């Protein structure tokens, strides 16, 4: 592969697959759908170096709705990347949980990645750089912004 070519980092099991199922999220995916889907994706990927991500399991992370990482995803050997979705405007909102998620992921040998990150531009929002500092300090990958 040439240095100017792109290759996929990961495939998500699905984008926000359980956003409409808070009961299943609260009960740690009793049907084992998340890990089952990830295991199937690993079979398809075979010996590829492409990783499997969670896709922001429960949608946007915020206080009282902490479903980007649940135990089934944390302890599933077929999942490589715990994908976080969040639409906050303050670094303090990210700081309330990103370091904990990063520590949980690292303890299981997984990466944590901010996959959907909504930012605003008016004076009530912290700058992108200020918010990104929280991610950098926690060792979390971030791939882009949705404004």
From TrEMBL:
Family annotation (SUPFAM superfamilies): (Trans)glycosidases (SSF51445)
Organism per entry: Phialocephala subalpina
Designated name of the protein: Asl1-like glycosyl hydrolase catalytic domain-containing protein
InterPro entries, A to Z: GH
């Amino acid at each position: 592969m040439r240095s100017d070519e792109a290759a996929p980092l990961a495939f998500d099991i699905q984008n926000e697959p359980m956003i409409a199922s808070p009961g299943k999220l609260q009960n740690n995916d009793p049907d084992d759908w998340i890990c089952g889907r990830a295991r199937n994706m690993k079979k398809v990927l075979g010996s590829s170096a492409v990783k499997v991500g969670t896709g922001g399991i429960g949608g946007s992370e915020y206080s009282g709705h902490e479903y980007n990482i649940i135990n089934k995803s944390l302890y599933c050997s077929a999942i490589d990347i715990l994908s976080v979705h969040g639409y906050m405007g303050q670094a303090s909102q990210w700081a309330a949980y990103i370091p904990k998620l990063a520590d949980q992921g690292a303890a299981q040998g997984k990466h944590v990645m901010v996959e959907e990150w909504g930012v605003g531009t008016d004076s009530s929002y912290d700058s992108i750089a200020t918010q990104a500092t929280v991610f950098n300090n926690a060792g979390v990958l971030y791939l882009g912004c949705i404004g």
